[in-house]
Automatic annotation (TrEMBL):
UniProt keyword annotations, A-Z: Glycosyltransferase, Transferase
An annotated Gene Ontology molecular function: quercetin 3-O-glucosyltransferase activity
PROSITE patterns membership: UDPGT (PS00375)
Top-rank EC class of the record's enzyme: transferase
Family of this protein: Belongs to the UDP-glycosyltransferase family.
Protein name: Glycosyltransferase
UniProt keyword annotation of Transferase present: yes
């Protein structure tokens, strides 16, 4: 006969699984950190073995741990932007069984005393990991790490095709407005569509529909988490909630974590060069242009030299994050002699701290969503040079909707770089940008404060996880699905 203790529900145990790329890991680790402070939750953060080895130096609270499964690729196989599709297919075809085995292995308390997983939060770009969890009676919540606006565009792919706005010819006018995406009719152009939309040549394009199907798959989950706020994207969130009523807008997460924990968490797969902060300490207020194209973007030699000469010609100080693999063929053309006082190059930098530094007056960015909201929360105007995917939507938000910077997409000329840097750093226009950026930072701070919208949604997420976990723990064993 089972004891009363054996019949009691297990502790809530949340497994958080990001797509194995820097930006995704950053965002979802911040959410995991915030959840670990919520009370009543244990958090397992699942990485691929390749990334687990690079993140093993991090330590967290006793109710937080790292786990790993293989991604199916050889150890010496590059995981760069050029291999993103190959990595995706490997995860889908070779890692799902390992994921299921991990969940089954937790059917009883493990040797460390951890209870079975009672809820999974899975990266929405990998919906194929939802199904094995929910088949075992473990509720799944989806986290999309892109902007709400980008997600909304992906969700409207079928509507754009039906309206005849997709596909369009390669020589089409890219400034032609897109009218079939509700709430974005006033500012969305062909030029601003995600790269998968701009590149497709036929309505039946397999990759185009893959992105659409991945986005709609969140309807199979118990909820949708977004790293945004009502202040940043209220009209779009309203539309998304019409499809996904249980949507949690809990961002910007780096600011939310700081509000909850009074500290920040970094999940960099690269070693950060903190000497950048020492160099910034010696610079005047708002005098430095910070340049970073994220962890995956790669420049050609020609693009690199256009940015380099544009920055030099602007006359402004600059701090450039120059990853070893940033420029195809290397950066041997860089000549630093005589530039030590006005320029600093680092392989990687603690970005949140750099953006908050008083010396930074402008951010040249690829418009990844993490970088975009970190800059907005720090009150730093942007010059956006997006390359692909959702970055093209984000840069339009910066330049046309929020008006907190300039959008330089599809252009890479030194004259344009110089002109935009000067516009954001000098004169009356620069003062206007700084004022708008400062006001935006204040509003973001309010959203993650105790009574803010993002904090409200985070608290609601915690309550729902506890409720779902209670149902899941009662259902084990045998596994049964929780009621909707």
């Amino acid at each position: 006969m089972e004891s009363a203790k054996e019949n009691q529900p297990q502790e809530a145990h949340v497994l958080v699984f990001p797509y194995p790329a820097q930006g995704h890991i950053n965002t979802m680790l911040r959410l995991a950190e915030a959840l670990s402070f919520a009370g009543g939750l244990r958090i397992s953060f699942l990485n691929t073995e390749h990334n687990h080895r690079r993140l093993s130096r991090f330590t967290f609270r006793p109710n937080f741990r790292f786990l790993s499964i293989p991604d199916g690729l050889p150890d010496d196989k590059p995981r760069s932007a050029q291999q993103v599709i190959e990595l995706f297919h490997s995860l889908r075809t070779r890692s799902v069984d390992s994921f299921r085995a991990l969940l089954l292995a937790g059917g009883n308390r493990d040797p460390d005393g951890w209870p079975p997983v009672t809820c999974v939060i899975v990266d929405g770009s990998m919906p194929f990991f939802m199904d094995p969890a929910q088949a075992l009676g473990i509720p799944a919540i989806v986290f999309r790490t892109i902007s709400a606006s980008s997600l909304w565009v992906y969700l409207q792919i079928s509507q754009m095709i039906e309206a005849g706005e997709l596909p369009f010819p390669a020589d089409a006018d890219l400034d032609e407005p897109i009218k079939s995406v509700p709430a974005m009719e006033g500012f969305l152009r062909r030029r601003d569509l995600p790269s998968i939309c701009r590149q497709t040549t036929k309505a039946e394009d397999e990759m185009l529909h893959l992105f659409a199907n991945i986005s709609t798959s969140a309807t199979r989950s118990k909820g949708l988490i977004l790293n945004t706020s009502n202040f940043l994207e209220a009209p779009i969130l309203s539309k998304i909630r019409s499809l996904f009523p249980t949507t949690y807008a809990v961002g910007p997460l780096h600011a939310l974590v700081e509000s909850i924990t009074s500290s920040s968490v970094s999940a960099s797969l690269l070693s950060e060069d903190r000497s950048a902060l020492i160099w910034l300490d010696a610079q005047p207020d708002h005098s430095v242009v910070y340049v970073s194209f994220g962890s995956l973007v790669q420049l050609t030699q020609e693009e690199f030299l256009e940015f380099w000469h544009g920055l030099l010609n602007s006359g402004h100080r600059f701090l450039w994050v120059m990853r070893p693999d940033l420029v195809a063929g290397g950066t041997e053309a860089v000549e630093m002699a005589g530039l030590e006082e006005r320029a600093r190059l680092v392989a990687w930098a603690p970005q949140e701290e750099v953006l908050r530094h008083r010396a930074v007056g402008c951010f040249i960015t690829h418009s990844g969503w993490n970088s975009t909201v970190e800059s907005a929360a720090a009150g730093v105007p942007m010059v956006c040079w997006p390359r692909a995917w959702d970055q093209l939507v984000n840069s339009r938000l910066v330049g046309e909707v929020w008006k907190v910077g300039l959008d330089m997409k599809d252009v890479c000329r030194r004259e344009m770089v110089e002109s935009m840097v000067r516009a954001v750093m000098e004169g009356k226009k620069a003062e206007e940008f700084r004022q708008v950026a400062a006001e935006m930072a204040v509003e973001i701070g309010r959203s993650v404060a105790e009574d803010g919208d993002s904090m409200f949604d985070f608290d609601r997420l915690v309550r729902d996880i506890l409720s779902l976990s209670m149902c899941a723990s009662i259902a084990q064993p045998p596994h049964r699905s929780c009621p909707k």
